[in-house]
Each structure stands twice: as structure tokens, then as C-alpha cells.
Write a structure and sequence with these properties.
Blueprint: H1 2-5, H2 8-21, E1 50-55, H3 65-74, E2 89-95, E3 102-108, H4 116-120, E4 126-128, E5 134-136, H5 146-150, E6 157-158, E7 177-178, H6 184-187, H7 194-201, E8 207-211, H8 218-225, E9 228-229, E10 241-244
Parallel strand pairs: 1-10
Antiparallel strand pairs: 1-8, 2-3, 4-5, 6-7, 9-10
Length: 246
């Protein structure tokens, strides 16, 4: 499989095919808007790297406000079978076998510095912005799902059915793959992702979002004084999402 995807001729063919197929993925919606969410007069720069710190000691098992907020923000409201429903963020329960300690934590795209989803994408649809946000350009996504197999966090969803009532700032399409984009349309306007805002409004303050490259940002200041954990640190992907209290 990998040998085929790295062949230049095949890559060119897939890019051309995707350009044609992408037009019909979601008629009437400019899927390019995802990769151009940053205003033209404020170019994306690698001087910033957006990240998130999640304090699992403040995240309760019965709370799913972050999941609800994501569903509303991105219009993930289609009525479909649970086994094929899209999940950009999900709550996962963990139990330490040694201590019996139980944890409840939200899992989303980890926005890796070295995203394996982008490495295996044959068309370049999965890519990382200069500021570290990993996105999917659904206009050229051909739905091969290699990225889903490569993601160690199972953070991506494939859309099986035709969608309606989409949000103009969060275009989606049948036959494409999607995942958390850190609410890039909000970040580019100086706002927090919807999940972070919902967590704060619920009074939990379990999620902090900010610039990891800014030593004076709230998230950087917090990371200086607490121990944080990266999921699957053994893979050395340097994710932008860190967990406190695991």
C-alpha cells in the first residue's frame, strides 16, 4: 500500500482525479475556505504553535459539554447510525490497573508536529498549517482513509452519507475524512475553540488553549509548573495536545 502511494505518477493521477471529484463533494460550498480561514492580511506563521492542555483532574466522567459544543459548532447533527457518526472529540474512560484510579478525558486530533495522517495522504489533502493546526482540505480528499489508519488516536471520521445544513465556516462532504480543526475559524479571529469555551462556561476550567511558542501565554505558563503527558509519546509525534494529571 505504501509503495503505491509514494509513486510520483500515481500521486499525480490522484491529485488530478481529486480536483475533478472534489467539485461534486459538496455542491455550493467552497471547501477551499478551510485552508484559507486566516484573513489575508494576517498570514499564518510558524512563530506561533497552537496547542491545548487538558487537566483530567478537572474533567468529570458525567460531563460532555465539550462534545456537545463541538457538535453544535460544526453542525455534526446529522441523524445517522451511531457506528458511522462523525466524532471530532469524544470522551474516553481510562483505569489504571495498578492503582484502580479512573480517568475521563476528551480525545481529539492531537495536532502533531509530525502528523502521520499528512505523511500518508496521497493527494496532500491532510496537511499542517505553519502554526501547527492540522487540517483536511476536503476539496482534494478522495476518501481513501489512509489517514484514518495512520492516526494512532483514532481521531478521524469518514462521512458515509449526504449531509445537509452545513456550517459555511466548517464545510464537510460525503466521501471525505474529517477531524478536529481546533475551530480554526474561531482561532483566526482570536477566539478559543468551542470546546474550551464550553468547558469554561461549565465552570470546570479543564481545558486551556493557546500559543505554545509564546513563553508568556497562559498555556505555556501552566506547562512550566505542572507535569504534562502526551498520548502515545513513544511515537515521538510531539502532539500539540497535552494532558495534566494522567
Amino acid at each position: 500500500m505504501n509503495e503505491e502511494t509514494t509513486t510520483p505518477n500515481r500521486r499525480d493521477f490522484l491529485k488530478n482525479a481529486a480536483a475533478l471529484a472534489g467539485i461534486t463533494v459538496a455542491p455550493g460550498i467552497l471547501l477551499y475556505s478551510v485552508s484559507q480561514a486566516k484573513p489575508a492580511d494576517q498570514s499564518v506563521t510558524s512563530e506561533q504553535r497552537w496547542g491545548m492542555l487538558i487537566d483530567v483532574t478537572q474533567c468529570t466522567s458525567g460531563c460532555d459539554e465539550c462534545v456537545k459544543a463541538c457538535t453544535v459548532e460544526h453542525g455534526l447533527t446529522e441523524a445517522t447510525r451511531p457506528e458511522i457518526a462523525a466524532h471530532w472529540i469524544r470522551k474516553v474512560g481510562l483505569r489504571d490497573k495498578q492503582t484502580g484510579q479512573e480517568y475521563s478525558l476528551p480525545v481529539l486530533c492531537q495536532h502533531c508536529e509530525h502528523p502521520p495522517c499528512a505523511d500518508v495522504c496521497p493527494t496532500g489533502a491532510s496537511f499542517k498549517r505553519a502554526d501547527g493546526i492540522v487540517l483536511v482540505d476536503k476539496h482534494i480528499c478522495i476518501g481513501c482513509r489512509y489517514c484514518m489508519m495512520a492516526c494512532p488516536y483514532k481521531a478521524r471520521s469518514f462521512i458515509h452519507e449526504t449531509l445537509e445544513n452545513q456550517k459555511p465556516y466548517s464545510p464537510r462532504g460525503k466521501g471525505t475524512v474529517e477531524s478536529c480543526n481546533f475551530c480554526v475559524h474561531r482561532v483566526d479571529k482570536g477566539k478559543n475553540p468551542a470546546c474550551v469555551e464550553a468547558c469554561q462556561q461549565a465552570g470546570h476550567e479543564a481545558m486551556i488553549f493557546g500559543d505554545l511558542n509564546d513563553p508568556y501565554s497562559k498555556i505555556s505558563e501552566k506547562l512550566k509548573i505542572v507535569k504534562s503527558t502526551a498520548l502515545r509519546a513513544d511515537m515521538r509525534l510531539n502532539p500539540g495536545v497535552r494532558y495534566q494529571g494522567l
